[in-house]
Amino acid sequence: MGPIYEKTATSPVNIAVIKYWGKRDSVLILPTNSSLSVTLSQENLQSKTTIRASPDFKKDRLWLNGVEEADVTKNKRLQNCLRETRRLRKEYEKKLCEEVGAENTIPLSEYNVHICSENNFPTAAGLASSASGFACLVYTLAQLYELPVSDTELSKIARQGSGSACRSLFGGFVAWEMGSQDDGSDSQAIQVAPKDHWPELEALICVVSDAKKGTSSTEGMQNTVATSPLIQHRIKHVVPERMKSMTEAILKRDFRKFAEITMRDSNQFHAVCLDTFPPIFYLNDVSRAIIRVITEYNSSNESGELKAAYTFDAGPNAVIYAPRENIPEIINIIAKYFPGDIDNGNEYFTDPYHLFSGNQVGKQPLPRGFNEQIIPVFAPGSVKQILHTKVGNGPQTLTGKADSLLDEQGWPK
Ligand code: DP6
After folding, report:
1. Are 277 and 232 in contact (CB under 8 A)?
2. Which of 6, 145, 253, 278 is the most exposed place for a label (fewest CB within 10 A)?
3. Which residues pair with 118 in a beta bridge?
């Protein structure tokens, strides 16, 4: 067997605190506003991808969470990412040819690829996986092709897989600058601050049960841009100012400002969804009850400080950002009002950072001054799972043989 050209890498999930919602070009995926997100730790949530290129492969193939995609040529967004990375590889090969000669240049851009990708979190949890998935695809291809380009350059390709994916090319705090060029050459992600800039900031994800499948982000945002007058106000007058204030809040580690903008921006995103005609509903009763408890938690404490910030994407799950010192209290409040289902006892909250001894989650008293009547206790299982996570790093390359998702012959293990 000849040499093997293969790379494996992992990529993180990101959750926006200033939401991307609306495209000005739906093929190149150019947004109508800039956005800003926090990259979450890969300990809890990540996509992992192995890609091998070989002259022996008959066609490009993709396996996602163990299932092969029937016809990858029909997956336009995947094709865009493959075409763009191959184009850069081709340019690089031309340069290599001149420098080291054709006999020393491997024409990887001409080989078909086998792509195998998995998420370490259940897709059923309803957590967006397209961002980490496309970031991982593009990052792994860039590693395989040894592309001499920056992560910001790669973010412009990942963006063409799924808009929010461009922000998963970096760890820490990440802005997606909307850009103004028609060809998308300045619509890119940049790091605002690295992971270690604000280590006290942590996140909780409340996985909320959802019986029906909601409107996809792609379709939802098209309808918003086409029908909502309110989105125009958001794009022109709200987001530009918020991007500046949020960047400042992050650089100064000002949680009050960070939290207020985060909650206001989530609220406005869901308001433009309601202003879409016909309206789009992503929040359900449980989501709204979580907003009420976090609001009560913030307003009832004597310090007058904001202690937590909620944000919701295109679904009912809540993400709560808070300083580390408040996290146990928040978990306790959520577990009290939204107890786990007995059948799901072990999954409900795994306490990865060992905050609780014994079975104390949800059993501790509410904070002083907290109005217990603010919402009723919900039926067990209304919140399926509470995930505790931190701010995390960008994509990582894995080098161990055991890390590969493909076997010796290049097929899924
Ligand atoms: C609500 O990135 O999933 O999560 O570009 O069509 O693939 P496409 O959309 P996608 O939209 C994410 C929307 C959001 C907000 C955000 O992540 O900024």
Report:
1. no
2. 278
3. 48
Q: Is the CB–ligand 1 distance for residue 222 below 6 Å? A: no
> Cα 314 from chain centroid?
12
Please choose, from the candidates 10, 90, 100, the residue with its C-alpha nearest in 3D space to the C-alpha of residue 48: 10
CA–centroid distance, residue 29 to ligand 1 (Å): 10
Query: Residues spanned by CATH 3.30.70.890 within the chain?
Result: 201-390
Q: What is the pLDDT of residues 363-377, one digit of tens each?
A: 999 999 999 999 999
Please state, in angstroms and rounded to a whole number, the distance separating the CA atoms of residues 348 and 353: 15
**Global confidence as pTM:** 0.96
In the CATH hierarchy, which top-level class contains the domain 5-195+398-403? Answer: alpha beta
Residues of the chain with CATH 3.30.230.10: 5-195+398-403
**Which of 2.60.40.10, 1.10.10.10, 3.40.50.720, 3.30.70.890 is the CATH number of 201-390?**
3.30.70.890
Q: Is 313 near ligand 1, meaning CB less than 6 Å away? A: yes
At 28 the three-state DSSP class reads coil
Mutate which of 17, 164, 265 to test ligand 1's pocket (most atoms within 8 Å of Cβ)? 164
Contact, 178 vs 199, CB < 8 A? Answer: no
Angstrom distances, CA of residue 18 to CA of 45, 142, 245: 21, 28, 11
Judge if ipTM > 0.90. yes
CA distance to 17, 49, 135, 201, 307, per residue, from 258 (Å): 8, 33, 26, 11, 11
pLDDT band at 301 (very low <50, low <70, confident <90, very high): confident
Q: Which residues contact 170 (CB under 8 A, 6 or more apart)?
A: 39, 151, 155, 189, 190, 191, 394
- The DSSP bridge pattern shows strands 396-398 and 5-12 to be antiparallel
